[in-house]
Structure formats: structure tokens, C-alpha cells
What does this fold into?
Amino acid sequence: MALQSLTKFNLKNFSLPFLNKQSLTVGLDIGSHAIKICELLEGRNGVKLLSLGSARLPADAVEDGELRDPDSVAEIIKSLLKNLKIKGKKVGISISGYSVILKKINLSVMSEKDLAEHIQSEAEQYIPFDLDDVYLDFQDLQTNTETEDRTDIMLVAAKKDVVNAYLQMLQSVGLKTVLVDVDAFALENSFEMNFGQEGNVVLVDIGSSKMNINIISQGASLFARDVVMGSRHLTEQIQEKFDLEFEEAESIKIGAVSAEDKQEELAHLFVNTTTKWIMEIQKALDFYNSNFPDDPLSKIVLSGGGSKIKGLDLFFSKETGLPVEVFNPFHLTEVDTEKIDPDYLKSIAPEMAIPMGLATRACPL
Ligand SMILES: Nc1ncnc2c1ncn2[C@@H]1O[C@H](COP(=O)(O)OP(=O)(O)OP(=O)(O)O)[C@@H](O)[C@H]1O
Ligand SMILES: [Mg+2]
It folds into this structure.
């Protein structure tokens, strides 16, 4: 079925030789706080940044990974595309939340064709939804060895009604969705495009309403989890504490408005919230360390708007004993600084991790 093949997840990152037409998808990350867009051009020496930008969404327009107010979201996407003069119509999106299930299973090694047939019956026991209601995809992580003929398979399922709502909304603004990915994998692609597959790295994307934790090792995801915790909670705490409007609290949080008189109480709120985040991250680290005691973690890499809290990297590093960096997904990307202000790029880079990962994906021709 056309719709089904259109929305088939495309988990493998691959690259086409240089082409003049749109060879890469326009990366579109529809978060709960903001929409982020990134457009890259594939050149002979890597990728070049064509355009990027973001726009805030009204509260509750996107919730738990679901499109609740498609008309508002469509209008915002339309004006963002217009302002950024984006001509590409083929977009890649990613989804997350309760309607997406990631499950790693272990099976005997078999051909891709046999696996495709077998996976349907396997999936039934792992996916808590009726299989007729989900899009299903898988990737062989090829963990088999000379002595072990079993391999790990990453199984992905997403609810059709949730995905279809995005497709319809995007079609209404003249866009063709050629790729539906999952936040965790888009983040992983983004990281590997920049830093390759060395070491055992903990990727943590802190958004507005959720935190995605993904531990990767040699190109494989060993642990991937969404936690319903994000930076919005901190805004709400500030709002409640000082009896403010949401936007006033948001401005204080991001440091756009000074709040000299509130420093002590603010510090307390920041520590409270970020300590909850670190406790969740620590659970992932504990899982990894107990399963792979001889192959220690190398570092934590932070992304998402929530990672922009000043000093968060140092705090996490102190708490976990691991080096912590804030991710710059444009580390290797060629940028025309006449067209894209380097200060703007630097400030928005952490939020652009997922859309950058989507924007590196090849468009099906
Ligand atoms: N300088 C800053 N300091 C602290 N927080 C910030 C800063 N800039 C942005 N944020 C917060 O980051 C969040 C938005 O980040 P992001 O765009 O990654 O979220 P999202 O993708 O829309 O949300 P989600 O992934 O949870 O659906 C907001 O809560 C915003 O307040
Ligand atoms: Mg996000």
C-alpha cells in the first residue's frame, strides 16, 4: 500500500552521491514547545547548511508526541517555510511518545527477506497494540559473531492514526513526508554524522516535555528511553513559586529577563529539577555499567533546549563522574556566515540536533 510504504521507517543512514536536485530531506522536528527546521545540501566535501530556524508553538498544540491542533501547527510551518525561503518539499519528520514502541529482540540470524516475514509474528508478543493499527519496521543490529549465530533486532512500531495525522497536516501545507523516523535514532544519526562511531556515548536530549536517553556503542543503540520530564516543568515551577504568567516565568528561566532578587529561590528550583533529570540518567548509566562492566562509558552529550541551562554540563559531570558536553550538530557542516549569523547558529545549535539528523537523510528518488 502506498501509504504504508511512504511511512515505512527508514532506520539506516545512507548517503547518495552528489546530486543537483533535492537529495536530502528537509528535517522537520515538531516538538511540544517549538518546530525546528533544518535544510542541508550535500556537497563533495560533506554537508552545507542551507537554512535553519525555529518557531514556538501554542501550548498544547502538540502533546505526548500527538498532534492536537493540526491547523495551528500547519500555519506555523507554512510561515516558517516562507520566512526561511525553503523550497524543498520532501520532508523527514520524527516521532516519539507513548505511540512509539522501540523494542530490542534477539533472533537467529536470517536473510532480510525471511526476517521481514518472520518479524510480523514476533512483533505480536512485544507490541502492546493491535498490529493492524501500527506501522512496523526493524533493523538488524548485526550483533552476531563467529561463535554466536543470534543477532539483536531493533523493532519499531508507531500508531498509524498518530503518524497519519502528521502526514495529513503536512500534506495540507504542500509537503511530502518521505521519511518518518524516531527521535532517538535521528539524534543518533546526527551525532554519528559529526563524531563517527567511537566510544560508548550517552546521548541525552532534554526537550520541553520529555527527555530522551540513548546509549550508543559502535553505531548500535544499547539503551533508548523517553522519560516524561522536560524543561517545561521548570518554567511551571518558577511560575508557581513567584505567581507569574507562563511567559514571564519562561523569560526568567532562559535568562532573557533578569531576576536579581530571586536568585536564591531560583537556584533551589533549578537544582531540584535538574537533580530529578540526573536521577533518570543515572538509571541508564547503572543499566549500562551492570551489563557492560568491561567497556566503560566515554561521555554524556547533551542536546535539546533544556540542555542550555547555564552550568548544566558541569553539574551533570560532577554528579556522574563522566565528561559532559553540549552537542553542536554543525561541528562539521559548512556554513555561509554571510547568510547565517554565527551567534544565532551557536545559540540554537543544541535544539537542532534532531532536525539536523533528519536533514542528513537521503530522499528516496
Ligand atoms: N537558554 C535556555 N535555558 C534553559 N532552557 C531553555 C533555554 N532555551 C530553551 N529552553 C527550553 O528548552 C525547551 C525547548 O527545547 P526543545 O525545542 O528541544 O523542545 P521540544 O523539542 O519542543 O520539546 P519535546 O522534545 O519535549 O517535545 C523549552 O522548555 C525551553 O524553555
Ligand atoms: Mg524535542
